[in-house]
């Protein structure tokens, strides 16, 4: 990352509480959420780190060691509890400001990302 882009950023790994596919699959994504694939509110909210639909791999792994067991915990994840989270209002995960629609959110996220990139590149140079 540093060699190609001039700074290093977070990569998120985790699972959706209500998977969209029947098979087990791990999501690995850049912590900018600026992807062209991020087209609709449901996509964005499904990865927003504070909404609760996306669970980091560390959170999931903690379930294996916790009481009750992982299997008890996973069985408590009710679709009816988590799917409404995908319909929540759009909010920037960095500054928590409300955004009216996806095009405005994507522009805002890009601006936030550009600010972060400048700040991080300056750190690398110093």
From TrEMBL:
InterPro entries the record matches: HIT-like_sf (IPR036265), Znf-C2HE (IPR032566)
Domain Aprataxin C2HE/C2H2/C2HC zinc finger: 51-115
Gene3D superfamilies in the record: HIT-like
Single Gene Ontology BP annotation: single strand break repair
Gene Ontology MF term list: DNA 5'-adenosine monophosphate hydrolase activity; double-stranded RNA binding; mismatched DNA binding; single-strand break-containing DNA binding; single-stranded DNA binding
GO cellular component, one term: nucleus
Protein origin, superkingdom: Eukaryota
Name under which the protein is recorded: Aprataxin C2HE/C2H2/C2HC zinc finger domain-containing protein
Originating species: Cerrena zonata
């Amino acid at each position: 990352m540093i060699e190609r882009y001039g700074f290093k950023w977070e990569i998120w790994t985790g699972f959706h509480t209500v998977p969209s596919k029947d098979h087990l699959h791990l999501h690995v994504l850049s912590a900018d959420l600026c992807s062209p694939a991020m087209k609709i509110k449901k996509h964005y909210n499904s990865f927003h780190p504070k909404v609760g639909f996306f669970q980091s791999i560390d959170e999931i792994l903690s379930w294996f060691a916790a009481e009750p067991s992982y299997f008890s915990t996973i069985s408590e994840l009710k679709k009816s509890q988590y799917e409404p989270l995908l319909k929540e209002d759009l909010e920037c995960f960095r500054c928590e400001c409300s955004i009216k629609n996806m095009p405005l959110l994507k522009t805002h996220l890009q601006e936030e990302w550009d600010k972060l990139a400048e700040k991080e590149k300056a750190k690398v140079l110093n």
